[in-house]
């Protein structure tokens, strides 16, 4: 990428290179605007207005898009190489990331465990009285796990990671599909920036293997946008429909501008209506049948979700509200520089609009991102997972911003050259001898590397700071301690209890067998905790559980007496000790700590060093508490017994912890 100019002489203000002197001023400005221009081979690279157009298969002039001359374009990994990079990064996330949202545990992992093993927690959303959640979505994930369990009989923990790797593979596949389209239509510079920053983005690390409908919607967003760019409009429509019906109805918003483009701009109304109807039949009919058979009544779960969240007077605000800054902080933590460039991308792209042949396509993608941000920014109830559907688009929009910034610098250089040509020959000579393209490329490289390093720092901080709820079980399973307890108890029921740490329970998959029962003891939390499915009941999903409500009111029936607990998991934070939440580990006559891990104390740690891991500095400015797995000191039980119920009514509160410092920082 080079723009060559000869030195100024006495007769001419600036004599352009031989190639440049053959061009009109308009063409020369176009070359200056094109960061892929290489004067050494006299070719125009990807993304310029001089690209090679192809005719759309639709046959309309408006649909003509620019195909990039890949031989002369800025280098970027091939789709096959990109897939290997993406699948490696996503598998790593599947193995190393924790569960950041208890909704993932109790609304998806636990129903899956019940369908596979006959035991699991049941939230009020799965009660046939409310039927807000779809068993079809759960079964899609449970099917490969069932096959794995049937043929190999693995430890449930391995089944857990199989499902995660299954999700990671789907994510990598849809991401590389989108990458191929971005590379084809926006060029090597944009696709390279988007790919590298996506690989190391903490937001992609936590979302791509999460067992959440919003994560599935992120896969479908990547597929829908990629298909739209490739003019596979039928596939794009189907992907948006699958995202909206199977996972999350509100994900239809990601297809709004695509629908406008197909129906109004490209005038494909009949095709759009036909494929919308086909998608509705193909997806909705099996979903209604499967969900209705599990709830034992006619039910349309997508409609129930919309009705509860929009048409109901209750809605999600019962579970906490957050200020607008919640998503600003979240975006910076998950995408750092790329989130800032995403916010600036509309302005930067408009300023350099003459440099973009693909301006329309860019603004469809940017518009989709901003519409989603705008809608959810206005909602009082905010959660990190609500932004997952647009996570694949943020690195792309950020790449648009960086690419436009590079174009802007080149235009500024051209302007300075023209000004200095009239004012000072010495300045002109100095500018001519500067390799502006090297500086422009260096800026892009610097932003990519900086974003990636910040992303890695955030990922390591999450791993070191919040891994304890997983690691206490890993260590006990690795050395066979949990299996030994089963033998000591004569394969009778063992009761594992959680108090204030209930929302960090990683799921029943972390227990070696169904001999283990997880229960809750009273803590300061005043919201509604999950109940239990009827154990080993083939019709358990159809049973109408008692003591369920949709008001997030505390249900005392969820608690057992502490004396019924054989094991206890707790976080020892000296500053949070109270009558309801004592330091159980200090009661050594009753409890023996058998596994212990460090868990970061967000209140006592420096906000920067707890959010990002900086070698040598973070250990000095962060404080860790003890996350412990304890065994009761008493004679082993010879048989199972029923748990006693504590009747202790309390007022309504939040069902899920929305503490920003704990959940995000």
Structural write-up:
The protein has 23 helices and nine strands. Helices cover 51% and strands 7% of the residues. The two termini are 41 Å apart. It has a five-stranded mixed sheet. The chain is of the alpha/beta class and 665 residues long.
Give a short summary of the structure.
With 665 residues, the chain is α/β, with parallel strands linked by helices.
Beta-strand percentage range: 5-15%
| pLDDT averaged residue by residue | 85
Task: Give me the number of helical elements.
Answer: 23
User: How many beta strands in the DSSP annotation?
Assistant: 9
Residues in helix, %: 40-55%
From the N-terminal CA to the C-terminal CA, the straight-line distance is 41 Å
Compute the CA-based radius of gyration: 29 Å
Structural class: alpha/beta
Give start-end ranges of low-pLDDT stretches: 1-64, 636-665
What does the largest sheet look like? 5 strands, mixed
Tell the overall outline: globular
Give, in spatial order, the strands making up the sheet with the most strands: 5-4-7-9-8
């Amino acid at each position: 990428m080079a723009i060559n100019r000869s030195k100024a002489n006495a007769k001419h203000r600036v004599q352009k290179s031989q190639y440049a002197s053959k061009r009109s001023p308009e063409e020369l400005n176009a070359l200056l605007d094109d960061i892929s221009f290489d004067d050494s081979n006299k070719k125009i690279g990807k993304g310029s207005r001089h690209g090679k157009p192809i005719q759309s298969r639709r046959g309309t002039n408006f649909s003509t898009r620019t195909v990039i001359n890949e031989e002369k374009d800025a280098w970027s990994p091939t789709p096959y190489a990109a897939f290997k990079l993406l699948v490696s990064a996503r598998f790593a996330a599947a193995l190393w990331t924790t569960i950041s949202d208890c909704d993932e545990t109790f609304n998806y992992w636990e129903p899956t465990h019940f369908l596979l093993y006959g035991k699991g927690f049941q939230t009020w959303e799965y009660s046939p009285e409310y039927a807000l959640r779809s068993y079809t979505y759960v079964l899609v994930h449970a099917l490969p796990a069932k096959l794995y369990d049937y043929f190999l009989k693995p430890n449930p923990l391995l089944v857990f990671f199989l499902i995660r790797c299954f999700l990671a593979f789907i994510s990598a596949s849809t991401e590389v599909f989108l990458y191929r389209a971005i590379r084809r239509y926006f060029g090597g510079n944009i696709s390279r920036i988007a790919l590298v920053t996506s690989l190391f983005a903490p937001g992609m690390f936590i979302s791509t293997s999460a067992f959440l409908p919003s994560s599935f919607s992120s896969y479908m967003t990547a597929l829908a946008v990629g298909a739209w760019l490739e003019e596979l409009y039928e596939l794009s429509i189907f992907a948006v429909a699958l995202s909206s019906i199977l996972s999350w109805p509100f994900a239809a918003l990601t297809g709004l501008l695509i629908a406008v483009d197909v129906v109004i701009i490209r005038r494909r109304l009949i095709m759009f209506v036909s494929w919308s109807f086909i998608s509705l039949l193909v997806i909705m009919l099996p979903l209604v049948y499967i969900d209705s058979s599990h709830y034992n009544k006619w039910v349309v779960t997508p409609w129930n979700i919309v009705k509860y969240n929009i048409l109901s007077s209750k809605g999600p605000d019962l579970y906490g509200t957050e200020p607008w800054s919640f998503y600003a902080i979240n975006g910076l933590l998950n995408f750092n520089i790329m989130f800032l460039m995403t916010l600036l991308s509309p302005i930067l792209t408009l300023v350099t609009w003459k440099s973009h042949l693909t301006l329309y396509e860019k603004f469809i993608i940017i518009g989709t991102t901003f519409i989603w941000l705008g809608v959810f920014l206005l909602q009082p109830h905010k959660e990190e997972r609500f932004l997952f559907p647009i996570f694949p688009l943020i690195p792309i929009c950020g790449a648009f911003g960086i690419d436009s910034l590079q174009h802007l610098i080149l235009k500024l250089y051209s302007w300075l050259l023209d000004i200095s040509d009239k004012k000072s020959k010495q300045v002109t000579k100095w500018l001519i001898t500067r390799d502006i393209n090297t500086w422009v490329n260096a800026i892009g490289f610097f932003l990519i590397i900086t974003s990636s390093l910040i992303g890695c720092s955030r990922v390591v901080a999450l791993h070191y700071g919040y891994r304890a709820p997983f690691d206490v079980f890993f260590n006990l399973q690795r050395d066979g301690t949990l299996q030994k307890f089963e033998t000591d108890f004569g394969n009778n029921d063992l009761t594992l209890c959680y108090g204030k740490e209930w929302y960090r329970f990683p799921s029943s998959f972390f227990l070696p067998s169904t001999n283990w029962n997880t229960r809750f003891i009273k803590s300061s939390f005043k919201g509604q905790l999950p109940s239990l499915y009827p154990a080993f009941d083939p019709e358990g999903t159809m049973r109408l559980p008692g003591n369920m409500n949709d008001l997030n009111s505390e249900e005392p029936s969820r608690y057992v007496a502490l004396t019924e607990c054989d094991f206890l998991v707790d976080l020892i934070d000296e500053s949070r000790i109270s009558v309801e939440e004592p330091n159980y580990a200090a009661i050594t006559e009753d409890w023996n700590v058998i596994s212990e891990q460090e868990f970061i104390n967000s209140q006592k740690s420096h906000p920067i060093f707890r959010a990002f891991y900086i070698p040598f500095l973070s250990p000095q400015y962060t404080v860790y508490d003890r996350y412990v797995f304890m065994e009761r000191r008493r004679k082993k039980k010879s048989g199972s017994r029923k748990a006693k119920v504590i009747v202790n009514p309390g007022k309504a509160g939040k069902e899920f912890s929305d503490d920003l410092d704990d959940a995000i920082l």
